[in-house]
């Protein structure tokens, strides 16, 4: 971000969106999804929100539609990003049960990406997208609260912005390649040999190396690092994972015997209950990673899954994983609040009952389709 790489990616995204403005309900969520997959954080959506609002207004499309799709896509994509804390936590649970890293990545990316496209189609086809007929917009327009559409202006990027993106992308590809190489299904590298890094330690080591290379090769002013939104969101995630997950694990471990009986009976008979629990718990824990770390190990233990030999129901965990993206249920998540604040047309809003906001329906549809596809694909592949 400090090197200008994030600004470069946003400019590329902006040019694509502006080149195909009428398809904004498809291109905007795809862009948010891909940025999140690459960066491992959904906070990349901040940067494209103003662009989405402006392009939507120029096409007389309610900005609430592409904004809701994009924000939710950035949250769902966390469960499919190979370098996100949530995906790393999930692989830590699933790999000992016989689900390889490449297989988990294949299932998560395929189901969430297709679900995002289907949801975009539903919103584009069946939503009332006519901005001019929105009463709140007309009222704000009369009061002069809606800004005029500005001429396109791209700010000058730092000299090494493209280089920083190249270094970062190489780092991501190296991580994925290494994770595939040490996966038991591929087995190019024997992880049991002395000195071979585990997948989690490899991600930490490689990304720290990438950060070092960007600082050196792109002449980054390191004093600016802690003031960036990326660093701050990362520290928030650390606190969520280390703090809330620890507290949740303490509670679960203290009641594990009673939870075992209840969980094994309910989830064995009604597998979809796990997805519902993840959906609502994630909005309270405020993090996909914290939700996965609290719930998944406890459920695996309750179902008696301790090794590949007794992990016949592990597909339930994999299929339900996308449901940990319910951070939009309460309109309090930072990207959700940013979308509401930056939409000067007033179409992206919170209703008087709090839960009836612009994100709840598209988000619930996207999560539900992701889980439904997971329940179809996971049992076949696993």
Structural features, described:
The protein is mainly alpha-helical. Helices cover 65% and strands 0% of the residues. It is built from 16 helices and no strands. The chain has helices spanning 5-19, 24-39, 45-58, 64-76, 85-94, 101-126, 135-142, 161-182, 199-217, 229-254, 256-269, 272-285, 288-302, 314-320, 334-342, 360-381. It is globular, with a radius of gyration of 21 Å. The mean pLDDT is 88.
List the helices and strands and how they pair.
Blueprint: H1 5-19, H2 24-39, H3 45-58, H4 64-76, H5 85-94, H6 101-126, H7 135-142, H8 161-182, H9 199-217, H10 229-254, H11 256-269, H12 272-285, H13 288-302, H14 314-320, H15 334-342, H16 360-381
Helix pairs in contact: 1-2, 1-3, 1-8, 2-3, 2-4, 2-6, 3-4, 3-15, 4-6, 4-15, 4-16, 5-13, 6-16, 8-9, 10-13, 11-13, 12-13, 12-14, 14-16
Rg measurement, Å? 21 Å
Using the alpha-carbon principal axes, give the shape: globular
First-to-last CA distance: 38 Å
Fraction of residues in helices?
A: 55-70%
Number of helical segments? 16
The topology string of helices and strands comes to HHHHHHHHHHHHHHHH
Name the beta content range: under 5%
- Biggest sheet record: none
Question: What is the strand tally?
Answer: 0
Arithmetic mean pLDDT: 88
- Secondary-structure-based class equals mainly alpha
Instruction: Pick out the low-confidence regions.
Output: none
């Amino acid at each position: 971000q400090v090197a200008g790489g994030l600004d470069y990616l946003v400019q590329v995204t902006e040019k694509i969106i502006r080149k195909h403005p009428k398809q904004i309900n498809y291109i905007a969520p795809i862009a948010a999804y891909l940025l999140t997959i690459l960066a491992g954080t959904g906070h990349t959506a901040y940067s494209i929100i103003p662009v989405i609002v402006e392009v939507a207004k120029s096409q007389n499309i309610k900005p609430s539609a592409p904004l809701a799709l994009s924000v939710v896509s950035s949250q769902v994509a966390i469960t499919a990003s190979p370098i996100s804390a949530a995906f790393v936590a999930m692989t830590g649970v699933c790999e000992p049960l016989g689900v390889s890293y490449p297989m988990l990545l294949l299932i998560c990316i395929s189901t969430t990406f297709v679900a995002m496209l289907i949801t975009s189609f539903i919103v584009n086809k069946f939503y009332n997208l006519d901005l001019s007929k929105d009463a709140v917009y007309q009222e704000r327009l009369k009061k002069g609260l809606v800004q005029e559409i500005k001429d396109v202006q791209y700010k000058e990027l730092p000299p090494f912005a493209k280089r920083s993106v190249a270094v970062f992308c190489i780092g991501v590809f190296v991580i994925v390649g290494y994770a595939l190489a040490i996966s038991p299904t591929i087995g190019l590298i024997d992880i049991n040999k002395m000195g071979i890094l585990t997948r989690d330690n490899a991600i930490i080591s490689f990304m720290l190396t990438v950060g070092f290379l960007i600082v050196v090769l792109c002449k980054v002013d390191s004093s600016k690092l802690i003031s960036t939104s990326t660093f701050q969101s990362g520290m928030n995630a650390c606190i969520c994972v280390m703090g809330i997950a620890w507290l949740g694990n303490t509670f679960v471990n203290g009641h594990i015997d009673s939870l075992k009986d209840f969980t094994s009976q309910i989830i064995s008979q009604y597998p979809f209950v796990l997805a519902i629990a993840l959906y609502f718990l994630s909005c309270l824990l405020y993090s996909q990673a914290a939700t996965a770390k609290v719930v998944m190990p406890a459920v695996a233990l309750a179902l008696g899954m301790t090794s590949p030999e007794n992990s016949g129901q592990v597909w339930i965990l994999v299929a339900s994983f996308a449901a940990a993206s319910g951070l939009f249920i309460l309109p309090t998540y930072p990207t959700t609040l940013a979308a509401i604040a930056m939409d000067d047309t007033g179409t992206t809003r919170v209703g008087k009952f709090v839960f009836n906001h612009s994100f709840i329906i598209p988000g619930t549809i996207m999560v539900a389709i992701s889980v439904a596809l997971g329940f179809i694909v996971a049992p076949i592949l696993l």
